[in-house]
TrEMBL record:
Signal peptide: none
Keywords, ordered alphabetically: Glycosyltransferase, Membrane, Transferase, Transmembrane, Transmembrane helix
Species, as recorded: Thioclava sediminum
The protein's name: Glycosyl transferase family 92
PANTHER family: GLYCOSYLTRANSFERASE FAMILY 92 PROTEIN
Membrane topology, record value: Single-pass membrane protein
UniProt keyword Membrane present: yes
Predominant cellular place of this UniProt entry's protein: membrane
Record-linked InterPro entries: Glyco_transf_92, Nucleotide-diphossugar_trans
Pfam families registered for this protein in UniProt: Glyco_transf_92 (PF01697)
Amino acid sequence: MRLFGITAPPAAEGREGLALVAIVKNVSDYILEWLEFHTVAGARRVFLYDNGCTDDTLAKIAASPFAASVTVTPWRMAGYDPATERRISQQVGAYAHAVTTFGADFERMAFIDVDEFLVPDPGLSLMEAITQHGDHSNISLPWHMFGHAGHETRPDGWVTRAFTDRAPVPYARDSDLLRFKCIVDPTRVSAVGVHSFETVDMGDRTANAAGQVVSNRARKQESFFTSSPLQLNHYYLLSKAELETKLARGPINFGGAEGYRKRVLAKVAEIERAPVEDRKAVAYYDALSAQRGGAGNNLG
């Protein structure tokens, strides 16, 4: 099911800020960096959907300085339409639940994964970057796809510091790397998807971070691709050993293991073909942390 229709919640009095929504499973090694980076960047709240964690992900969150701003919801949904037998993505279900249950209190919600980081331009908070070019209820951010950076196994320290090589952008229209994640006004959402949303005022149109508006279908044109004032870093490969673990785990939603492996390896080949250095995330965190007197916990 590509999109799931919903009725948006009415805006609560005094709603403000940005909430992040992610579905998680066994991300203990990465979750604290992800929480710290986005907290320093200005995220107000985080809603995590636990898709069956068996490691210490939840214990680490509970013992962290971020515990008070994180809501964890158990999520093992296995829904389908009995008329068509089409299954409903666990991510789509979680996203729809987040919008309708928690969305009233926030100006924006961003729907990303724990290997994805929202990186504003220097000096901007997340909300400042999101609203710099207008009050768009639906923003689509293209993946900036990061590779192995030569690491055979997981390096010590932060992902954003260890992996600074990515595929050159923009991607060709037919590229396996050209996908989007969305930031929306939850009180204006009419339909939810993993990579696209619809809203009551924009319909099936969406804006990029620079304010250009097109239809969801037209997002793949080169002129829509943007890295400013907000960039979405996707640390897709990590180390070679971590990639093999990812391949063995298989897809989070539907499809067979072999098809999933072929799709992932096609992305690997394109990312690793001629990578370029990108240290925007490192520079952003370091500058903002220093400006705030070392506000971050410097986990990396």
